[in-house]
Design brief:
The protein is of the alpha/beta class. It has a single domain, classed as ABC-type transport auxiliary lipoprotein component (Rossmann fold), CATH 3.40.50.10610. Helix content is 31%, strand content 36%. A hairpin with a 5-residue loop joins strand 8 and strand 9. This is ABC-type transport auxiliary lipoprotein component domain-containing protein.
Length: 205
């Protein structure tokens, strides 16, 4: 009886080892940071004594992720396998806006809206596209951001604008893909900085 049980146990061990050998390997994930150009050139104007607060953009659930989106047409969304952003897309966009607004030196202070720091104006936005789009003409990065500027003093809406950029993807690697999205975001941030400045600039008589 003991010999029989020993054979049964040995068979179970061999079977379980065989099952382990056919388990799929864990997916290798590469983490990508959104490239930000710290040397962007904007308008040459005196700094405003103004503090800005940047909120994280609202967006659809399908874009509120660290996965990198790809659209084969306007309706079908997929995600690149084995690739992730370093954070969720809205957080990356918020951080890139803050870094650009700070680097322009057009405003006295730029802070995160989630912080306890006070500011004169709030930048609220809606991220409508942050993706790679495939077409017969090739791949392109597409970013759309609707931005609203609100006075923190009286909650008055000062203005809103729709910013959109498309940048061709230069190659076939993920570095080329993320670089194109970074360039599109850089262009939007430059437009955003100039739009906010001109909106808040004191009007001459």
């Amino acid at each position: 009886m003991k010999l029989y049980l020993r054979h049964v146990m040995l068979s179970l061990i061999i079977t379980s080892l065989g099952a382990c050998s056919v388990l799929p390997e864990a997916e290798q994930i590469q983490i990508y940071h959104l490239p930000i150009d710290g040397s962007l050139k904007t308008i040459s104007e005196p700094r405003l004594n103004t503090a800005l607060s940047v909120a994280e953009p609202d967006t659809l659930r399908s874009l509120n992720t660290s996965r990198i989106s790809e659209f084969s047409n306007v309706q079908i969304q997929r995600y690149y396998a084995g690739a992730r952003w370093a954070d969720r897309a809205p957080t990356l966009v918020q951080q890139s806006m803050m870094q650009t607004l700070q680097s322009t030196d057009l405003f006295s202070q730029v802070v995160n809206a989630e912080s306890d720091l006070s500011a004169d104006y709030l930048i609220h936005s809606n991220l409508r596209a942050f993706q790679i789009e495939n077409s017969e003409a090739g791949e392109k990065a597409h970013v759309i951001l609707h931005v609203t500027l609100v006075s923190q003093l009286d909650r008055q809406l000062l203005g809103s604008t729709l910013l959109a950029e498309q940048v061709p993807v230069a190659g076939s690697s993920m570095q080329d893909t993320t670089a194109a999205l970074g360039e599109a975001m850089d262009n939007i941030n430059t437009e955003l900085s100039e739009w906010i400045y001109m909106l808040l600039k004191p009007k001459s008589d």
